Every structure is written in structure tokens, then in C-alpha cells.
Amino acid sequence: MATKIMVVDDDTRIRKLVKDFLEKDHFYVLEASNGEEAMDLFYENPDTALVLLDVMMPDMDGWQVLREIRETSKVPIIMLTARADERDELKGFELGVDEYIAKPFSP
What fold does the segment set 4-102 form as a domain? Predict the structure, then answer.
């Protein structure tokens, strides 16, 4: 079975761009449009190999998702966010993110 990667972003265009790029390399992509969906998918798919996570989302933001995942898992997490401020980046690393990529980005 293909490696599972979860893409969590409230922007449909970003999710589609990342999904199309990853599927070309034969990854299986799980999509979530908000933090609550992401957590449901994460618990349903404990074999997820990587999470690409936006910070700014309605209801449950990326920081909350990151904290909750880190309570039970060391799965690699890459933040994909428009928040390019150094303080946000440092906060991400303090909370356990593995990489921080600012939007716009090149796939």
C-alpha cells in the first residue's frame, strides 16, 4: 500500500495542488479542510507517515492540531502557512513541528 500523507488546509486550491503533486509520486493523500476533520482522519489512519498542516483554519487551528497529535505521536509534521513571522516559526518548533514552510511555496 502507498505511503499515506495527510494534507490539512482550509484552502481547497492548496490541498488540490499538494495532493496532485504527491499523487504523481504515488503517495496516498488524505485531505482535511479543518482541524477537527484532521484529528478524526489521523485517529482513523494511525499509519499516516507525514502531516502537512496549515496554521490558520476555522474552529480548530493548526497549533491545536499540532499539540493534540504530539500528545500521542511523533509523526513528522510540516507546517505550510502564510504566517511567515519568526515568532510563529519559533512557536511551531517549540511545539514539535519538524519543518516550517511559508506560503507561497514551490511544490
Answer: Rossmann fold (3.40.50)
Mean pLDDT, range 8-31, rounded to an integer: 95
Residue 81 confidence (pLDDT): 78
Residue 87 burial (10 A CB sphere; 0-12, 13-18, 19+): exposed
Model confidence, pTM: 0.90
Measure the CA–CA gap between 26 and 30, rounded to whole angstroms: 13
CA 18 from chain centre, in angstroms, equals: 11
User: Sign of torsion, CA 52 107 4 31?
Assistant: positive
